[in-house]
Amino acid sequence: MVIGTIIEQHADQSSFLWLLRDRSFSAPHYTLKNLAKLDSRVEAHIDGLRVAGDAGWEICKETLGAGESGEVFAAAVLAFERGDAARIQAVLEVADEKPETSRGLVSAIGWLTWQQAEVQVGKLLSDESPLFRCVGLAACAAHRQDPGKALIDALSDGHPIIRARALQSVGEQGRKDLLPYIQDTLTVEDDFCRYSAAWSAALLGSADSAFVLKSFVRSDFPWPEDALRLAMRRMDHASAIDWQTELARQANSTRLAIIAAGAIGDPVLIPWIIEQMTVPELARVAGESFTMITSVDIAYADLEGERPKGFESGPTEDPEDEDVEMDPDEDLPWPNPELVNTWWQKNKSGFRNGARYLLKHPITYEHMEH
């Protein structure tokens, strides 16, 4: 007999753990081993829903009403792996109503084997809805499957969101044969198409992409920090250091300067990064940049400090508080600057100023080959 409360726990945990996974996959203190363990936990709860059969689906269908990406992920895995048209439609209706949940939908399709997903992805690629065609392209990218003609057609589509998604797919799929087209798109008017073109061009080795990405490091663009990280990594070392120095001199861009320092990866910037850990608003992101260069997990290495007394960030329970912005560093540990500095003094001889590091390894062709 299936116990309802247990099924609900599987549904809740699969959604929650997927959200945790979604936030963690790009965090430097999460190793592949950590992510594999997290994936196993997600899969265990999804499997619990599978075993529950129709009862598992009904619980997931109810939670779809929340309109959240995690709930869409869990329901979509069950629906798409069975190829159940009615269940798939229920998931797609939620995604259509709340496009921001499409990330969970794409992730769910990526969770399946390509054999399970291929037929439904083909339907999405030919759907009339621009959103669903984007989901189809993203699903192909997740599986590293070439969409073929659908990708070529999407690159010249009249819908900017489809074209932008296709431009991103070019980089994800490593389509160097399309780099000339991508470079020609670096000057288009639409911001999202131009950004996607620059993003893919950077992955495909274009030096021109860095300065296009730099133009998106501004407050009115949705992903300025992502643009900054990739631009810094594509720039030559001297240009990257100059830009980071410029950002550090401006009081309103110190956070960006810290992120830039981590992306550049030059140990010469670490003393400055540690200094920023003394500022509560910047401490955690500084810790993340330190980890990005050294690979040291602040919490695991016992370099963690206490949350400063009285420090508040993100939405509060005060109904009159107009600040509803989420805390961007919510999941990051609080570093103890003194402990971090002590660690650095003991270990800095293993790093060379002027070189660039990613998680303690020098960014060189020789290292990347291994």
Describe the structure in your own words.
The chain is mainly alpha-helical. It has 2 domains: 1-145, no CATH class; 236-307 and 328-370, no CATH class. The chain is built from 20 helices and 2 strands. A two-stranded antiparallel sheet has the order 1-2. Helix 16 runs parallel beside helix 18. The longest helix is centred in the N-terminal third of the chain and has 21 residues, at 4-24. 38% of the residues are buried. The model has no long low-confidence stretch (mean pLDDT 92).
Query: Main sheet: which strands, in order across?
Result: 1-2
Structural class by secondary-structure content: mainly alpha
Number of structural domains: 2
Number of helices: 20
How much is the radius of gyration in Å?
A: 22 Å
The separation of the N and C termini measures: 51 Å
Helix content: 55-70%
- Structure summary, number of beta strands: 2
What is the arithmetic mean of pLDDT? Answer: 92
* N to C succession of SSEs: HHHHHHHHHHHHHHHHHHHEEH
